[in-house]
Amino acid sequence: MRSGWGNLSVYSFNSVYSVVKSLKRFAWHFVLTLHRHKHTRYDCAGQFIKDYLRLRFSKTFPILVAYLVFVVIGIASGLLNIAWTYMQVTFGVSHDSLAALAPAAMLGGLVAAFFNGALIGRFSLGAVLVGGMAFAGFGLLGYALAPVWLLLLAVAVFTSVGKGTIDAAMNNFVGSNYGSSEMNWLHACWGIGLTIAPAIVTFFVLDQGGGWQASYILVGIAVLLLGGLVLLTLPLWQLRDSGGAGSQNLQRQPLGESLRRPIVLVGLLFFFVYGGIEIGTGQLANTLLTEARGLPQEVASGWVSAYWGSFTIGRILMGLLAMRLGDRLLLTICFACSLLGAGLLFLNPSEDLSFVGMLGIGFGLAAIFPILISQTYARVGVDHAPNAIGFQVGCAALGGATLSGLGGIFAEYVGAESISLFILVGAALAVIIYVFMLRFEGRAARAKRERG
Fold first, then answer.
1. Burial class of 265 by CB neighbour count within 10 A (0 to 12, 13 to 18, 19+)
2. What letters, b where the CB count within 10 A reaches 16 and e where it falls short, cover 45-76?
3. What's the maximum distance between 2 C-alpha atoms anywhere in the chain?
């Protein structure tokens, strides 16, 4: 009986607390609204309530759509992992043909990311998002409809342009309008989509006895529907400066002008190295564990899956912690965690501790990318941020492809155990570059104060 009353009391307290928080938020918006409209008198409470709901909708609706978009794009990115087994039979190509498809699927995304800021400046963020979703949606349908291999390669480039555009533009939108918590959750949604993708392909191929094409058609239609939703709510999709001004009030800078700023260049170097660590660890760990350390394949596969899973879980948790700890402290913890994890993987004191090390790398890296993307507007300035975010997203992808390939070359000629040293050096280099970024930020802040 006492236990039941205790649960009821806790429930009642939580309910009252939620109501008080809502009333407090409502009152705060009431004060802000009166401040903005100090020369206007509301004729009735209903008008204020309408304005309040409009304000809440304009903030809540876009971020929910952004989360859903990243889930779907994550699914689109993960389909090939399973579909390739059946795709090569359809087109009559060998396993090594993936070496042609993978670069094609990356090339368009790199170009789109690097020029994303220029496109946003020329058109608008909402228009760029809609265009990217049209490219990605029709491209995914093209995967299912392509009759020959060469046309599929062209479709892969077309689709990657769309996905790269969505990636950079949505990072710009969330970085401009929200905080690091929302940015962490945005990237967690991509991981959720990546996790769901294999089940979708398996469902159509095995459970329904159909072809892999059905999964691409389903996801392509979902992307196009979301693109239509963004188009219908186009005024909500704007970049905003620190003072709340909309896209039209921001002064866009040419790409070359942004690239001349040292703080931008240091950031690009960091994201290049970061991409190499994140992708390189995921791609090369299986070789390290099976060839150098003799683990069974099923155990090594479980380790790699846990590594990728730690990104999604880590970003959800780090999004919550960002509200409490702040970005600077959270980044310090993340860098320490990734460096310690890389050290454990390199030293290999025991099998269990090496596994803990891999999880440490994953949890540590999880929040670094979203937080530093979110901080771009404050770090480089609102005028250069759209360009910088596109560059950063592109450099992370380029680093993932380039440095993981370099690690594979080392493993081939030096030995598979060199992969652990490669990961440790990369983690240490990322910390060093981040320290330089902080120094450049400090110099830029002092110069701005002196000019002011």
1. middle
2. eeebeebbeeeeeeeeebbebbbebbbbbbbb
3. 78
| Homologous superfamily of 61-252 | MFS general substrate transporter like domains (1.20.1250.20)
Q: What is the pLDDT of residues 399-444, one digit of tens each?
A: 988 888 899 888 888 999 999 999 999 999 999 999 999 988 877 6
Q: What CATH class does 257-451 carry?
A: mainly alpha
Token code pair at residue 195: 């996790």
Length of the chain, please? 452
Residues near 116 by beta carbon (within 8 Å), at least 6 away in sequence:
128, 164, 165, 168, 169, 172, 386, 387, 389, 390, 393
Q: Going by C-beta distance under 8 Å and a sequence separation of 6 or more, which residues neighbour residue 186?
A: 63, 66, 67, 70, 170, 171, 174, 370
| Residue 373 burial by Cβ neighbours in a 10 Å radius (0-12, 13-18, 19+) | buried
pLDDT digits (tens, 9 = 90+) for 123-174: 999 999 999 999 999 999 999 999 999 999 999 999 999 999 999 999 999 9
d(CA 404, CA 398): 10
Judge whether 70 and 195 are in contact, CB under 8 Å.
no
CATH 1.20.1250.20 placement within the chain? 61-252, 257-451
User: pTM to 2 decimals?
Assistant: 0.80
Q: Are 234 and 127 in contact (CB under 8 A)?
A: yes
